[in-house]
Amino acid sequence: MEAAVAELAEHDSFERRVGYRFADAGLLTEALSHRSWCHERSVEQQTGSQVASNERLEFLGDAVLGLCVCQLAVTRWPDLGPGDLSAVRSAVVNAGALAEAARRCELGPALLLGKGEAATGGADKESILADGLEAVLGAVFLDGGLAAARDIVERLMGERLAEAASEPGTREAKNRLQELVARQFGAEPTYDVSSSGPAHRPRFVAAARILDEVWGRGEGSTKRAAERRAAQAACTRLEDLDDPPVDAEEPAHG
């Protein structure tokens, strides 16, 4: 009896931590039920049938997570192409990122684990946390719909998503420019970046400089996207060193 009361209290606390209140509490219980706990419960009850684990909800949650991440990435960063979007998804939809998010909302203490699994630190194992969070997302989707699941993904993984979105496409252009500048000038490029617009939808303008001269400009919805475009523009100009550098006061182009 005491164990059941403690379990309910922990589930209630977890709902507050994750920021969602279930209409169907049974879905949350299923999402938190690891197969090791379900096996022990089935043996104890001697029913001959297996108590439902969170594996089915995990299967659903994997698809829900992927859709939420893709929707957030497409709507937030219109500059990213399909290849970059795929890289963003891969950076967020993986066991390490999921486990990190699960620890953020303290999922581990809420999981229902078998005695053996609990004794070996199962509540902090990366695979168990990742699977558990996917199961929770699947349960939230069934209970409250896609918008509710997306809110949780954004709350728990938004920072990592933004970091991932700032990287695709940037590394290649900037590295290429750095190599060209080192080879042709024996120096390193630098970037001047300014921003404008509202905080929720800023626009960035970057200028790629070589030896204090502007060789390329770029704009984007993120700082790195603007730097990427500036680097790409500078790389193009470096193919013909007979062209003079872009005048520092020249209006920016998209």
What is the assembly state of the chains in this entry?
single chain
**What is the level 1 CATH name of the largest domain?**
Mainly Alpha
Task: Kindly report the name of the CATH homologous superfamily of the largest domain.
Answer: Ribonuclease III domain
Question: Which ranges are low-confidence, i.e. pLDDT below 50, for 5 or more consecutive residues?
Answer: 248-254
Largest sheet: 3 strands, antiparallel
Q: Structural class of the helices, strands and pairings?
A: mainly alpha
Approximate shape: elongated
What is the typical, i.e. mean, pLDDT? 86
Biggest sheet, strands in spatial order? Answer: 1-2-3
Distance, first to last CA:
65 Å
Q: Specify the number of helices.
A: 11
Reported by name, the CATH topology of the largest domain is Ribonuclease iii, N-terminal Endonuclease Domain, Chain A
Rg of Cα set = 25 Å
